[in-house]
Amino acid sequence: VIFDEVHYVNDTERGVVWEEVIIMLPAHVSLIFLSATTPNTAEFGDWIGRIRQRPVHIISTTYRPVPLSHSLFAGGELFKVLDAKRPFSTAMYQKAQESFMKKKELEMIKQGIKPPLRGIGGGGGRWVDGAGSKTQWQSLVKRLKKDGLLPCVVFNFSKKKCEECADYLGGEDLNAAREKSQVHIFTSSAIKRLQAKDQHLPQVIRVLELCKRGIGVHHGGLLPLLKEIVEILFSKGLIKILFATETFAMGVNMPARTVVFNSLRKHDGREFRDLLP
Questions:
Q1: Residue 46 has what pLDDT?
Q2: HEC letters along the chain
Q3: What percent of the chain has pLDDT over 70?
């Protein structure tokens, strides 16, 4: 039995199911565990060995088949602060930070004066989490398209933010005529699984209209069929930018070239915490 993304054994809600399966499988069944983000592999392997009464072999590598780089988007530009070939670039981080600041604020910093806190959505200031303005989202999408970095998944930690950000791209059309036709044919067939009256629900009409333009939303507030439609279209490359909550990442392997986070903090069910590597 192969357990993919086995780090979800630590998930508050799902973890107990994973543990029960691991413990209750017959002794003759061999197990393979896969994960790119399990931090305590030795401890986990030791636990598996004890409950299964079998030797455990841990095979690890730091090599990534697909190189990963981290950039900050500021002032309409992408500033690469980290990649596989070099450590974190403080200089690039500083440039990105300065691009958010107005001239007056930069002068204050040079004089040793702390500038007032400004939100990202307001167009400038020091690093503050925010949803981003309409202009910033449009600028980001144009930059990603220009640099060949689509398809893209944008992780928002709020259903409302997913919808708002999709609305910001009301004037954007990321699909060619042929792609629109493919989306129309697929969605027209897919929604027939709904009852006739449900096919004209505002949510259905809105999501399908977004999909035709290469824009998608994916969160727990959507009808299951609509989430499935979005996932299939994204896997076919017919959705170029997808605004999703983290539920989209649960065991879903989708062909994204870029991942964007619009916040560095999330609510874990009890409190807000910083995103961790």
A1: 94
A2: CEECCHHHHHCCCCHHHHHHHHHHCCCCCCCEECCCCCCCHHHHHHHHHHHHCCCCCCCCCCCCCCCCCEEEEECCEEEEEEECCECCCHHHHHHHHHHHCCHHHHHHHHCCCCCCCCCHHHCCCCCCCCCCCHHHHHHHHHHHHHCCCCCEEEECCCHHHHHHHHHHCCCCCCCCHHHHHHHHHHHHHHHHHCCHHHHHCHHHHHHHHHHHCCEEEECCCCCHHHHHHHHHHHHCCCCCEEEECHHHHCCCCCCCCEEEECCCEEECCCCEEECCC
A3: 86
Length of the chain, in residues: 277
How would residue 130 be classed by pLDDT, with cut points 50, 70 and 90? low
Q: How far apart are CA 183 and CA 57, in angstroms?
A: 46
pLDDT digit string (tens) for 64-97? 777 889 999 887 889 999 987 888 899 998 888 8
Task: Using a cut of 0.90, tell me whether the model's pTM lies above it.
Answer: no
